[in-house]
Amino acid sequence: MTKVTLGGKVWTFATNYCRLLIRVMKRIVTKLINRMLLNTVDSERMASDITLSHVRKKMFVGLGNPGMNGSRHSVGMTVVEALAKRLGVSDSWRTDRQVSGEIIVSEFQDTQLVLLRPKLLMNINGVSVAKAASKFSIEPEHILLIHDDLDKPLGKIAIKHGGSARGHNGVRSCVDCLQTDVMRRLRIGIGRPSGKTPVDRYVLGRFSAEERKVLSTVLDESVTTLLAQLKDNELQKSPPGGRRKSQRSEKKDSSTALDIDREHIQT
Description:
Blueprint: H1 2-38, H2 43-47, E1 56-62, H3 75-86, E2 94-96, E3 101-108, E4 111-118, H4 125-135, E5 143-149, E6 157-161, H5 169-178, E7 184-189, H6 199-204, H7 209-231, H8 250-253, H9 256-259
Parallel strand pairs: 1-4, 1-5, 5-7
Antiparallel strand pairs: 2-3, 3-4, 6-7
Helix pairs in contact: 1-4, 3-7, 4-5
């Protein structure tokens, strides 16, 4: 009996270790893909579309998976679309191959506003964000990421002033590609799945009819919050924990494997 119990413990440990190893390898591969795609940026060509540098600029990004509008994981895209509609520019979306995404360039009061919907998978959304930031000369301090949040119930939203990705792969990709974590985020609560529903299946699924009723109010509140952020002329400063990646300690980098279980989706 003791041998069976011991063998079971060894098997459980080995299984968990292998799963952790696979996740670490996925993280490494994703970072390599980020770097490879960013190396394809044609700086001279990008510069040709840059407007005058003295114009105040901001960029709002709806994180998500292309072709999955309406899913919980792509609620950030739904919010940025609602913002475009409120601003009266919803018919202005155009595909920009240079930034691997769909964009709208608009004016709001004295600010040039770039709206972005990446056309890359969530795990490499940051490539699109970094390319757009380079093309339009927008500093990370003036970028706001809009994304889903499992830790907040549906109906709740919150502004986060930079800091860690908190397990969100789309945000992590942006941090990796921009080499900083100072970007503001609008976190849209989607809640956690009930019962034994896998998290990945839940976040990639569409909102139910009841949830869509709540979502309508959430979109209105989110757009109002974004407009308030747009009017905020204060330069985003690095918050506690928000800093350039090159300044992070080796100790924090070594803790990646310990934090990896906080990831909620691998797509």
